[in-house]
Design brief:
Layout: H1 3-9, H2 19-26, H3 34-46, H4 50-70, E1 75-79, H5 89-96, E2 101-106, H6 109-118, E3 125-129, H7 135-139, H8 142-147, E4 155-159, H9 171-181, E5 187-193, H10 199-213, H11 223-226, E6 234-235, E7 241-242, E8 262-268
Helix pairs in contact: 2-3, 3-10, 4-5
Length: 272
């Protein structure tokens, strides 16, 4: 456990599992507590490949940011990035183009505290409280507008958020509102767990989340359902695919792509 976790945890209920800290445990991080590890191990008992999937999403994110910079994008809004780790969005983007600007968006107090301490270290990088379900409030945030020129093309990256939001909360409508707000020439990139290749894992994992987080909703989806988040956008090749298949650096990563059952895709806004 890091000193940062100790400081942040001092004012929080560390006996209750936390989505962000569970995700940190999956990627081998130390910013988590016993309750988080216990919940994570229950999920890993059902699907031990989730550790690999978490790392594959990180690798996908690196490739996406690199691609978007190559397309001339210098502004990024990252929703649901989780607790800072290695190869954070601003580090990737600014290593390629130093003037790149990045805003991280989160609601989780653990993520916000860590991110403000570790990521918002200069005028080109910021952290705001918000989420994809409240796009109007998000895009009106003064910190976001101080860093991001909302009249110029930008990229919205959503990883690790949509897969937890049930249909009852209208995530497709909210993402569409965000899409409509983006200037022409902007991009939307998403990653989302799907259960096409592991349908038998859906119900047990949902049951763990119900038991641990007292949630009754089921947010599990298939690839075809996730495709709806990119409606109205011009798809970037190769479309919405398993993350291992999205512009891989190594052709060997194409072997058994469904073993990492997370899909990722990028769409470009071409019109007003």
């Amino acid at each position: 456990m890091t000193d940062e976790v100790r400081r942040v945890g001092a004012g929080l209920d560390t006996s209750t599992p936390n989505f962000a800290r569970i995700g940190n445990y999956f990627i081998g991080g130390k910013d988590n507590f016993a309750a988080d590890r216990e919940a994570a191990e229950q999920i890993l008992a059902i699907a031990p490949e989730i550790r690999t999937m978490a790392r594959e999403v990180q690798a996908f994110q690196v490739r996406v940011i690199r691609y978007l910079v190559e397309q001339g994008i210098t502004q990024f809004i990252h929703i649901g990035a989780g607790i800072p780790s290695r190869q954070n969005t601003h580090e990737i983007a600014q290593s390629l183009i130093p003037e790149a600007r990045v805003v991280y968006v989160a609601t989780d107090p653990v993520v916000l505290s860590h991110s403000r301490a570790l990521l918002a270290t200069d005028s080109r990088t910021g952290v705001v409280e918000g989420d994809v379900l409240h796009p109007a409030e998000l895009v009106a945030d003064p910190i976001l507008r101080q860093i991001i020129d909302v009249e110029r093309p930008l990229a919205v990256v959503i990883t690790g958020a949509l897969q937890y939001i049930p249909d009852e909360d209208d995530p497709f409508k909210r993402v569409a509102e965000l899409r409509d707000w983006m200037p022409a020439g902007s991009y939307l990139a998403i990653a989302h767990i799907v259960f096409d290749s592991r349908p038998e894992a859906a119900a047990p994992i949902v049951e763990v989340y119900r038991r641990v987080f007292n949630r009754m909703e089921d947010a599990s989806r298939t690839r075809d359902q996730v495709q709806g988040f990119l409606d109205g956008l011009e798809p970037v090749e190769p479309g919405l695919v398993y993350v291992r298949q999205w512009r891989p650096d190594n052709p060997l990563n194409l072997h058994r792509p469904e073993k990492a059952w997370v899909v990722g895709g990028v769409g470009r806004k071409t019109g007003p």
